[in-house]
Target: Putative hemolysin
Amino acid sequence: MYILFLYLVTFLIGALCSAMQQYIDDEEIDVRNAILAETRWAVIFGAFVTMAATATLPWNMWAEMCIAAYLYILFAVQLPKRWANSGDHQAGVHRLYRIVRPVLRILALPVRVPTIVKEEVREEDIREMLSEGSDIDTPKKKWIQNVFEMGDTAIEEICTHRSEVVILSLDQTTAEWRQIIHDNRHTMYPVCREDEDDIIGILDTRDYFRMDEDVDQDTIINNAFDEPFFAAENTKIDALFHQMTNRKNYFCIVVDEYGGMTGIVTLHDIMESLVGEIYEEDDVIEPKEIQQIDANQWRIYGTAELGEVEEALGLELGDEDDETFNGYILTEYGHIPEDGSQFELDLPLMTVHVKEVKNHRIGQTIVQIKEEAHGKTETSH
Model:
């Protein structure tokens, strides 16, 4: 008797689950619960039918399993789905759902399975993977490392120093502007009043050269000037990159804590900090800052980092206040040399022949290492 009751319940549950999957919105019921309830009822049904069949047909276990499977497919799958799809039962299904909802919820109680928590990949983990070696080739490794360093590096380290920036002044004539632009071939030029720290705009030569040659300064200011964008020299590269892209700025004036101009940074400079030097067709490729001529002779430019010079020469040179070879030479020389001058500086470990001075900065030098320097180096080792 109770087997017939199981078949009836199975039919009702199968019909209700099938109809619910077809008619009831996801907002009213999670259809997955219906599927889960139907599946779990199949297990319960199979267990009870097997127990009953074992009592009535103990002579053939395989027959019991086949009969139970056939009856379940008939009463729980085929007939319920045929009934659910035979007509518009939506109203009836809703009423029936309200009645048996507690039973379905019990059958569909979630099984607590431990959730696998995905570990977040930290910057330190990626750095460690890169340092230990992986299948990533060397250029890509360098790019990835540069991405992380953008968040740690101040824009002061990549900016073009003010001594190398070509600045236009309102005190100059438009003819002088045109000659300066012709001689330097940059796309954008900062424009100042009397003081170079007082930048009032950025001249965009793409707009400037669309004008007639005889236009006055006010017309140029109104039609070819961009609003200057300023950033503090301690701003990190990645932060400046987001600011410039959001504001659609290509050109940035870098200022110190007192508002004085430190230099300029462009999006081109930021991209070079990520992927390395990017040369354009008309760029003059600058020589390496440190070049070895022979065993004891080097060609070193003033812009070279002092730490790199010390590493190349194998010597300890200036104090910690000097960041570049230019700073070290000027400290040892004791005063600022005149542009175009050449001089020789005799130091304890080397002799420095300064071949070029431009904008009061040391350019090319020839460094001759003294024999006693090698003795001190070997002793220190």
About this structure: DSSP finds 14 helices and 15 strands in the chain.
